Amino acid sequence: MPVRNICCIGAGYVGGPTCSVIAYKCHDIKVTIVDLNQARIDAWNSDNLPIYEPGLDEIVFERRGKNLFFTTDVDGAIQEADLIFVSVNTPTKKSGMGAGMAADLAYVEGATRRIAEVAKSSKIVVEKSTVPCRTAQSMRTILEANSTPGIHFDICSNPEFLAEGTAIKDLLNPDRVLIGALQTPEGIAAQKALAEVYTHWVPADRVITTNLWSSELSKLAANALLAQRISSINALSAICEATGADVDEVAYACGRDSRIGSKFLKASVGFGGSCFQKDILNLVYLSEQLHLPEVAAYWKQVVIMNEYQKKRFVRHIISTLFNTITNKKIAVLGFAFKKDTGDTREAAAITLIKDFIQEHARVAVYDPKVDHEQIFRDLSEPGVIDTRKEVEKHVTICASAYEACHDADAVVLVTEWDEFRDTALDYQKVYDNMHKPAFLFDGRLILDAAKLRQIGFKVSVIGKNELA
Ligand code: NAD
């Protein structure tokens, strides 16, 4: 039976864009995206969508009210649907056993129990959230134990590979769509029904079908491998700075080997985002549970290297500024974890700014997309700096890069927004309004250091030794 009615539980960075694209490409399917968060749903129903992704507005505005709906009526949408995506958050556990490593599956379990309780007909339930391997088994047990007799559930795993900032592009033209299912006649039928939704626009040879567990593990593995490349080039960037090798040249020389490839070999202040660290820690936890300590240690090193890179950058900034940043003004350009998104989860800027505050600096932040309140929330989290007041004493949020850099002792480029490139921002104007010597730290390797040195800046770039 072809799928005619889809419910997506979770209207976040994944559920929202993914299911909006399904509605955009499949006019014969009714898509209802639900969430418990009323404010988020109100935003999805307004002119000001709750997340920023290039191309998202157009798609939502075209289909909303036709075959695309956003509501908090979770039960109603579950009952109507023949296929349900579970696209809820799976953050790293904050407390209890496995804290700091294991995925918190409370939201997945909550959504699964709700499906079992309210469903009045058989459904295909699709794991869209990133979950530890064999979570589908737990979902199956919950569904079977709590549902009305005569109702049958099939479970598919369909992890999402979109990258924030390019979500719509990735969804419209994915490298692959992965669908795992139990290799039983019912499982294979469910897998086929979900594959047919995607083949409305994705070439059939890009739809990969596997068993359930391969699909679940592939998502963790893909993110671990991507993050590992970043940590690998960042580890090399430290050697470059100490030796005079140039990390961009090393990356280019290595990347030209077709076995290595050039993508994801850009050195930086470190990776952020809600997924890489969480998914690697998930893999580490899984390995420990499986009594594979060497495997766990191997993957954990990727996260350790990432933390090291951020701390190394901060230490370099402080030592360059004559070993003290007390009362100095540091302009931080960018707060989002990468360009073209307003998402700040695990953003490097958070770690950096907390360190600057601890060293008694004055920090001025500018980001073109991040909500000002969000910045204060991120910096005020319990920990070293645990009150909003304390953060407000040290941090000013600015309306432009020029305002942030005015009277600054140093500019630290943290997010690679195009508007911070030396072809977009007037660095002469920035320089003229700064204290001298004017320091510039490029944490994303997007600036032409030679050009900026000519203006007069003292420039430091990760992975490059200016004395080389
Ligand atoms: P998110 O926090 O932005 O959204 C999740 C939403 O689910 C929240 O709005 C929350 O209110 C809602 N929710 C939780 N429990 C619910 C319930 N029982 N009923 C209704 N709504 C409920 O999270 P996200 O970034 O969209 O991530 C979702 C999943 O996708 C995670 O497992 C994540 O690891 C994975 N993923 C994320 C990305 C990414 O780039 N963000 C990419 C690939 C995969």
From TrEMBL:
NAD(+) binds at residues 10-15, 35, 40, 88-92, 129-130, 164, 275-278, 345. It catalyses: UDP-alpha-D-glucose + 2 NAD(+) + H2O = UDP-alpha-D-glucuronate + 2 NADH + 3 H(+). It is an enzyme of class 1 (oxidoreductase). GO terms for molecular function: NAD binding; UDP-glucose 6-dehydrogenase activity. SUPFAM superfamilies: 6-phosphogluconate dehydrogenase C-terminal domain-like (SSF48179), NAD(P)-binding Rossmann-fold domains (SSF51735), UDP-glucose/GDP-mannose dehydrogenase C-terminal domain (SSF52413). Its EC number is 1.1.1.22. The active site is at C275. InterPro entries: 6-PGluconate_DH-like_C_sf, NAD(P)-bd_dom_sf, UDP-Glc/GDP-Man, UDP-Glc/GDP-Man_DH_C, UDP-Glc/GDP-Man_DH_C_sf, UDP-Glc/GDP-Man_DH_dimer, UDP-Glc/GDP-Man_DH_N, UDPglc_DH_euk. It comes from the Eukaryota. Keywords: NAD, Oxidoreductase. This is UDP-glucose 6-dehydrogenase.
